[in-house]
Design brief:
Blueprint (H helix, E strand, L loop, with lengths): L14 H11 L10 H18 L7 E2 L29 H11 L4 H22 L6 H12 L2 H8 L3 H8 L1 H10 L3 H7 L1 H6 L1 H17 L10 H29 L7 H4 L9 H7 L17 H25 L4 H17 L3 H13 L14 H19 L6 H16 L5 H6 L3 E2 L3 H12 L5 E5 L4 E4 L8 E4 L2 H4 L4 E2 L4 E5 L2 E5 L4 H10 L3 H6 L12 H7 L2 E7 L31 E5 L3 E5 L14 H21 L23
Parallel strand pairs: 3-6, 3-9
Antiparallel strand pairs: 1-2, 4-5, 7-8, 9-11, 10-11
Helix pairs in contact: 2-4, 2-5, 4-5, 4-7, 4-8, 5-18, 5-19, 7-11, 8-9, 8-11, 9-26, 11-12, 11-16, 12-26, 15-18, 16-18, 18-19
Length: about 650
């Protein structure tokens, strides 16, 4: 025995036996126990989600801009990416439809679970990246990562699918840095796979620099073969999880309007300008997505100070503990911040317009504020480092512990506009019964053909909350049917008293707009119903495009074509029975909705089906995810937390 206190050590004469005994006693992953400390970040994420969502978790659907969940969400070839439309919501809509069929809960409860999952996965992932054995610093990183202006503003934009990918970023980073196994990476990419193209793009911004950093420091023994192998693994993993949306996107013939660069550029939502706003993780392009009270000078100054404290904590953490994610995460944050700054300067915007004009694939770069997500992760881990500094390497004294706990709560206190449904801006709404009725009518019709939605505008102002408020939301009809929906996907943005139009991506929508004569002046004159819709022969021309139904939303509140402002309520728009003289059938005639079926002889439609290539893509992606879960023998819950680079060296684990 060495040392006192009854501590046991292996006999010095039998070191091999001692090591073997330790290895034999090490529990296998499948039998690993879940300690309370490992579950604490999940609990913190759950608590943060409940506090942030509040009333939105109650009965009904939380509708806000792009966040549209519908009753009985369809699971069809269209939601899987078939039918020829641009795959904006692939595979997220398909996953929601599948969950609604698998889980014994209604669709609004599925939405609540998905939104809570964002907070839980993000919090638990950020906590894993903080080195050390103390729980409080990890909880601080967890709180910071899910409670910041970036999360609040993207939630108020309704971009839940992108936030799901954001929640998975720390898991992706850990999988790249701590394992060379492709299966581990694919498991970590599951949230991004569900989120779709924006989520995968953010994952690439984090994963690729981390892969390069695996080769070591460029100025000190860089190993290019190690970095190259890691990059190949990352590219392969990203490609595999992207196939469900990537293949339909390449087949869709979609294009991106370069003019959107100016409209989606980051803007100052604090008194500290665009750069200061981005540094504080704000700066979203839409003024209506800024949380309550965030723009006030005192609150904004406190949030910026908190960001600076987090950056200071990161520097201390890197110098003191040398976390294994340091190089990759620093590079990813710098790259992401540089992309965000491109839209803040005229030369940068000109560069982006040129890139998008040359290749539409550069289109996602137009929303610059999106790319501060890696900086949010860096600040979260750095914030945990600041709390670790206060806590101390040994158990903190009373003063240090108190200061650490108070700092842990600071992100919530200094962003009150996210609490309780974003200060009441996320409230549950009930769909009127007519929406379910038209959904059932179209679903019961086995004949192929798309649904054209009128008024000819993308966003609607709905007053379904029961308290007289109007909610601006993407037209729910775009998610309601199990067949392709044709709608005006042009985006109208108000800026400095002028309305700018960003051309949409769907070629079929542009052709339909030509048929119905939907120019700007005409389409707004009759509540978005072009007057030329009453002209003879329009029904036949629409049928030639493969359109079988026309849905007229009679009580669509006017002016939601400008999604940057919450429009006031207006009287219902009265619409006549279109195409009555051309043999069309009014299959639903309600106070809110009218559903018109065009004559069969006019409709030249084919059944919406997945191509062989699209089916193959789905099989590869789903098969790879299932194989990875089995091969890695791991789940997100059981993955181990970070270690300092100075800790005992370890072989690659099977975590």
């Amino acid at each position: 025995m060495r040392g006192g206190g009854g501590a046991r050590s292996a006999p010095e004469s039998e070191p091999g036996r001692s090591r073997g005994a330790r290895l034999r006693r090490a529990p296998r992953l499948g039998r690993r126990r879940l300690r309370p400390a490992s579950l604490a970040p999940w609990g913190i994420g759950l608590g943060a989600g409940v506090l942030a969502l509040g009333p939105a978790l109650g009965p009904g659907f939380a509708l806000r801009y792009d966040m549209v969940f519908v009753p009985d969400p369809p699971l069809s070839a269209v939601t899987l990416g078939g039918g020829g439309g641009f795959p904006r919501a692939v595979p997220s809509d398909a996953v929601v439809g599948a969950l609604n069929r698998v889980l014994p809960i209604p669709a609004d409860a599925v939405q609540a679970l998905v939104l809570l999952a964002i907070f839980m996965i993000g919090a638990a992932g950020a906590a894993r990246l903080v080195p050390g054995r103390w729980v409080v610093p990890r909880l601080a990183a967890a709180v910071f990562y899910v409670w910041n202006p970036f999360v609040a503003e993207r939630l108020l934009l309704g971009q839940w699918a992108m936030l799901l990918g954001y929640a998975g970023l720390p898991w992706v980073l850990g999988a790249v840095v701590r394992s060379s196994r492709l299966s581990r990476l694919i498991v970590a990419l599951v949230p991004a796979a569900v989120g779709g193209f924006s989520s995968v793009l953010l994952s690439a911004v984090v994963a690729l620099p981390a892969a390069v950093a695996r080769g070591g420091r460029p100025w000190r023994g860089w190993r290019p073969w190690v970095a190259g192998a890691a990059v190949v693994k990352v590219v392969g993993g990203l490609l595999v999880v992207s196939l469900p949306w990537l293949i339909p996107a390449l087949e869709s013939g979609a294009r991106t309007d370069p003019a959107a660069v100016d409209l989606f550029a980051p803007r100052a939502d604090t008194p500290f300008g665009t750069v200061g706003s981005l540094l504080a993780l704000g700066g979203v392009w839409n003024a209506q997505a800024v949380p309550e009270w965030y723009g006030h000078a005192f609150v904004a100054a406190c949030r910026l100070t908190l960001a600076i404290v987090a950056l200071g904590g990161w520097v201390w953490l890197v110098r003191r503990h040398r976390p294994d994610v340091a190089g990759g995460l620093t590079a990813a944050a710098v790259i992401g911040f540089a992309i965000a700054l491109l839209g803040a300067t005229e030369p940068g915007r000109e560069l982006l317009r040129g890139l998008i004009g040359a290749w539409p694939g550069f289109g996602p770069l137009r929303d610059g504020q999106l790319y501060v997500a890696p900086l949010a992760l860096l600040q979260a881990v750095g914030f945990g480092g600041a709390v670790l500094w206060l806590w101390g390497d040994a158990r903190a004294d009373a003063a240090g512990a108190t200061a650490a706990v108070l700092l842990l709560l600071a992100p919530v206190v200094l962003l009150p506009g996210l609490a309780w449904g974003a200060a009441g801006r996320l409230a549950p709404a009930d769909y009127p019964a007519e929406w379910r009725q038209v959904q059932r009518i179209a679903a019961a019709d086995t004949a192929p053909g798309a649904v054209l939605v009128l008024p000819w505008s993308a966003y609607r102002g709905v007053d379904w909350t029961g308290d007289g408020r109007t909610i601006v939301v993407l037209d729910p009809a775009t998610k309601l049917f199990d067949r392709r929906v044709v709608w005006n996907d042009d985006l109208r943005v108000a800026e400095s008293g002028k309305v700018h139009i960003v051309e949409g991506e769907d070629p079929l929508a542009r052709r339909a707009a030509e048929v119905i004569g939907a120019d700007t002046a005409d389409s707004t004159a009759l509540g978005g119903i072009p007057a030329s819709m009453h002209a003879p022969g329009v029904a036949a021309r629409l049928g030639e495009l493969g359109i079988r139904y026309v849905l007229v939303e009679r009580e669509a509140v006017s002016s939601p074509s400008d999604p940057t402002t919450d429009p006031p309520s207006s009287p219902p728009t009265e619409n006549k029975f279109l195409f009555a003289s051309e043999g069309a059938e009014l299959v639903h005639d309600g106070a809110r909705l009218a559903l018109i079926r065009l004559p069969d002889e006019h409709v030249a439609a084919v059944e919406d089906r997945l191509t062989l290539l699209e089916v193959t893509g789905w099989l590869v992606t789903v098969g790879a995810i299932l194989w990875s879960c089995v091969a890695s023998g791991s789940s997100l819950v059981l993955m181990r937390p970070a270690r300092s680079a100075g800790a005992e060296s370890r072989k690659e684990s099977s975590q």
